[in-house]
Amino acid sequence: MGLALIGISLLPLRAGAQVSESEIQTLRLEGTPIGALPPMPLAMPASRNNNYWGARLQSGRRQGGDGEALDAIAVGIDFQYRGGSVFGLTAGYQKRDCDVLGPDCGGHAMYGARSRLNLITGGGLSIPLIFGEGGATTTIGADLGFGYAPNVAPGVTACTADMGIQFSLAGLQRTRFITYVTPGVMWDTKCSSGDPAPVTSYFTGFGIGLQQVRSRSVDIYIGLQKIFRDDTGYRLGVSVIYLRLP
Amino acid sequence: MKRPVSRSLSATVCAVAVAGLLSCVPQQVIGKVEPADIETSLFLIGDAGEPDPRESGAALDSMSAQAATAPARSIIVFLGDNVYPAGIPRDSSVEFADARRRLEVQVNAVPAGVRGIFLPGNHDWARAGPSGLEAVRLQERLIATLRGTRDIRMVPGNGCPGPFNLDVGRLRLIGLDTQWWLHGYIVRDSASRCSSDPGAVTAALRAQIAQKQDGRITVVAGHHPLMTGGQHGGYCGLTGPFRRFGGTNQDIMSSANRRMRDSLESAFMVQPPLVYAAGHEHNLQALKGTPATQYLLVSGAGSEAKAACGVRLRESYYVSQYRSGFMRLDIMKKKGVLLSVFQYAGNRRHPSYRRWLELR
What we know:
The structure holds two protein chains of two kinds. Chain A is mainly beta. Chain A contains four helices and ten strands, in the order αααβββαβββββββ. Chain A has a ten-stranded antiparallel barrel. Chain B is built from eight helices and 14 strands. In chain B, helix 4 links the parallel strand 3 and strand 4. In chain B, helix 3 packs across helix 4 and helix 6 runs parallel beside helix 8. Classes of the chains: A mainly beta, B alpha/beta. At the A-B interface, strand 1, strand 4, strand 8, strand 9 and strand 10 of A face helix 1, helix 7, strand 9 and strand 11 of B.
């Protein structure tokens, strides 16, 4: 019965051909912020005396794999609690995969919520000290996110959950240079009737960035992410964050 | 249909270029400062209470040498934790001889003609223990014994919270005993000649801060920092996540510490001092101030054996970790205050950091 429903719902997707269950799962994975936008590191630590609000602009592009390049753009708002962990909301728009869905396929909205938990900052893992950088900082954290995107394909709603760890090294005294790795696991879940079953996927993000650019409050990151599934290609993008200092 | 990767790459290159351009903010150029242009030099060193038994250490030696070049205009402030691990015990104690040695090294680092000021820290209050009040008084007496004819003293004195006030030229130096606010045991007895009411202490501090004078430069010094990227701020090491949710009252997130900080900052608001200087963290941090203070300095790297981690915060101008060192404020005769940070690894001196402090 379920398979029949899937078949009916997917018939109009591509002229003369059905979209496979695997392709739907890939679209779900790549249609929410975790799959559509570039990875980011944990926020730069700040004073414990204050909470901070930040605005975020992100753009990402899926390249490679079997489908077309998928461009995405999003805005977000971040709340950094006591200079450490960050809780953020994201809203964006992604172009649909016209190679899969047919010409004039348009795009879809996407939404996400993410907590980036700062666990350990600094300490014995300040590896760049070896190179004489006295202001180097190591950060280890955890990531937990949820994503939702209606109509990633006609009649298909994407829901994802993900969790991962964060590891970053930052150095230099003024504008900070940061490198980061964000391995994790994600699930594209079944959030409308008739959708294919949930699938677990693994991913790793990597990026570099500059923190405290200009007025000490702008951060810029360039991230690359690979989801370890067939036909997913890789995700490359840029994130710019403005954080308001009290 | 696949599109060429070149579009992504060109977008990335553009983003990097824009970021690079944005980061090219002009930096302060600080030329040579003529000694004749300096009105007062204030040396800030904290947590120096664990000197090596065989040598005094590069930070103390270097600071002493710098102060000795112009003793009449130099003031050295020891920012607390002058004797590890638990301050000065009674002279009948087996620990007394070594505790005396630790203090003597610092007293001897104050050259003749230079004013020396010792502020108490939590370790001087018997490691924040029950005999803290006695320990801090014993230290005051021992400094009076060791100083000879030099102008060296422990303030606020007699286990009182302060504020202690010293005016030298345009400098107003206000000393506080911040451990008095946090101490969990007796802070007053029949020998005390000061208030035990935090409200009265705050009011006295507010009154001292509020006294206006043209060109006055106010520096407030205490042991505990108002902001920090060290272990007492929940950074540096595995205990960080726990210290962030309270920790002990020595940690910046604890309710007792927050009450103290709120009280001090409420007093500062009447006329924000240029600098609040502290120790407590075993690193060197120069931080952007708050509405209540213009600059926050943490200079607690007086003991090389204790030099520890320091995380650069978004508010930080400069951080030095795992190295000993001290800070120096030069109040210039015309205008301007120059901050210099000196850091050492072993006997090797690393490049110093300098910054003009802008007067609001």
